[in-house]
Amino acid sequence: MTRASARNVPEVTPLWLKLSSYLILKDEEKDYLSDLEKNIVRQTARTDLLQQGEKYRDVRVMREGWAIRHKALPDGRRQVVNFVLPGDIIGMYSTLFESADHSVTTLTAVEVACFPPERIVELFQSFPRLAAALAWSGAREEAIVAERLLSLGRRTALERTAHLIVELLRRLSTVNLVENGHFTLPVTQEILADALGLSIVHINRTLRRLRDSGLIELNGQRITVNDVRQLASVGQFDELYLHLIRAPKRLERAFSGDRRARSGDDKVEGRKM
Amino acid sequence: MTRASARNVPEVTPLWLKLSSYLILKDEEKDYLSDLEKNIVRQTARTDLLQQGEKYRDVRVMREGWAIRHKALPDGRRQVVNFVLPGDIIGMYSTLFESADHSVTTLTAVEVACFPPERIVELFQSFPRLAAALAWSGAREEAIVAERLLSLGRRTALERTAHLIVELLRRLSTVNLVENGHFTLPVTQEILADALGLSIVHINRTLRRLRDSGLIELNGQRITVNDVRQLASVGQFDELYLHLIRAPKRLERAFSGDRRARSGDDKVEGRKM
DNA sequence: TATGCCCTTTAACCTATGTTGTAGCCCCAC
DNA sequence: GTGGGGCTACAACATAGGTTAAAGGGCATA
Fold it and tell me: Residues A242, A254: contact at Cβ < 8 Å?
């Protein structure tokens, strides 16, 4: 609760880091972000941060720990939509949407910052660069969900599983949570099954195949990827969708007014299939 | 090309309508939107508006017609991520992302407006309310993709198909493209299959079951839904995720400075599972 | 009127994945 | 330590959905 520091030395948080890959943050922007995160709350594992169907509450920023975003059918079948990692925002659109169409549940103990949804509006009004960076990071999240859709629709169980492992590896390594090819996966096989649209038994079979082929090792929650390249090739993994190549400078330039002609006569393209 | 009208009488476009459900647009915002859409281009059916892997080009606004957003694996397997309908934006994040992780292909002849990506940055700087409305409509699109993920992961072929038909019915009726329960579906069974993660043969079987049970009728591209309630119940359709209940007034209020206390002492919640 | 292409339809067969059931392990509570 | 709950593991069997193949309809072009 007292961890947020005074304005003169803003703390570097995961959100801060994430937005930095889109923008070179100005001092007042850093101050604003650190102010947003000043109300810090801890929650234990297996707690709902948001429940499908309820009215939206505060906006939350994940600072530490893992959670899942998931949706359920009335009869209990469940789909994990995405993993929520440090720096991710929960319920950013609370101001506008009536009620939540998904739940968010912690997998580990977590530390989140809470603030009222009105502050997002404030942010759009007063910090357009931050607003753009947030909107962009939201778009990146959508890209991840779309890629998972491709997995569920068109990849086999083995491919899907390999793909997810590589995805998590890549996402976690951008926040320095991977060391020597191994990382902590605080996830039961049931959750993996729900993320990949498989049964728990089949996820078990599939992990076994991956272990037998020597591509990965599993010890409790520790997963070791022995051969990323080959695992990526099994999963037909193409990291384009993670949009890891970011261009803070390009956005900087755009924001500093170096704008091209606003003429309406852009070239016309579009080619036949 | 000459259809965009002069500033004094801005044309009501689908984008305009869509944003109006989030905001009560001011005159200068209407003018700006109409200026954005002044460069209008037509394309025939089966043309790519964007190709996976290529550098992003212009931002486009769909004004008329249908398209699909889809992703493909190297071996040709393909997944349709979403249907692009009038008012939707294509490539909104061109400024930041290096290259496209999906393709967009027209299904019918379309009319789109094109503008350079820099204008999105301009919009964030000068029209924060429009920026917020756009960001929110992007979030709604993500919600649709997440719901489709639930379908592919956890619904049976019959449920998925019923669900998609009801979804399209609801989305199209908000833009007055449904009449008496029937609408035009400019889509081959192959595309349906790619949207639902099924084989073309199985989509055919499934449509047959829906027709045999009397829930729908198909004549060419005309689909008639005879019993929406029952179809919705087959598909376990809950329209929460479409976020059709919008609250322009709530957003208006937030933007006009009627903001609550910014104190940091929001209630702490979170309940055990 | 004929030709061909694209799309739909159906049948027969196949396989990836789901289901059910049982067992063992580990860890925590008592 | 003992019991129980949650998780992993794996075998045996069931089935939804995939694959292959072939025929037929509609529509444009010649």
Answer: no
One-letter amino acid of B137 = S
One DSSP character per residue, A106-154 reads: ESS-EEEEEE-THHHHHHHHH-HHHHHHHHHHHHHHHHHHHHHHHHHHH
Q: In terms of residue numbers, what domain contains B80?
A: 1-137
Residues from chain B that touch A119, judged by Cβ atoms under 8 A, are 262
Whether nucleic acid strand C comes within 7 Å of the CB of B208, the answer is: yes
* B74 domain residue, yes or no: yes
The total number of structural domains in chain A stands at: 1
Tokens representing B165? 């038909």
Q: In Å, how far are A225, B56, B60, B112, B175 from B63, measured between CA atoms?
A: 47, 20, 9, 5, 12
Predicted confidence (pLDDT) per residue in A206-247, tens digit: 999 999 999 999 988 999 999 999 999 999 999 999 988 766
Give residue-wise pLDDT tens across range B99-138: 999 999 999 999 999 999 999 999 999 999 999 999 999 9
Map B132-148 to HEC letters. Answer: HHHHHHHHHHHHHHHHH
Instruction: For residues A50 and A48, give the distance between their C-alpha atoms in angstroms, rounded to a whole number.
Output: 5
Residue found under tokens 């049970």: B213
For A199, the 3-state DSSP assignment is coil
In whole angstroms, D26 C1' to B65 CA is: 23
B150, B163, B200: best mutation site toward chain A, by most A Cβ within 10 Å? B150
Q: How far apart are CA B203 and CA B207, in angstroms?
A: 6
The CA-based diameter of chain B, rounded to the nearest angstrom, is 60
A235 part of a folded domain? no
pTM of this structure: 0.91
Quick: pLDDT tens for A15-49: 998 998 888 999 999 999 999 999 999 999 999 99
Chain mean position to CA B224: 21
Task: Verify whether the Cβ–Cβ distance B141 to A142 is below 8 Å.
Answer: yes
Residue A201 within any structural domain of the chain? no
Task: State the average pLDDT over residues B217-244.
Answer: 94
Dihedral sign from CA coordinates of A270, B109, B21, B146: negative
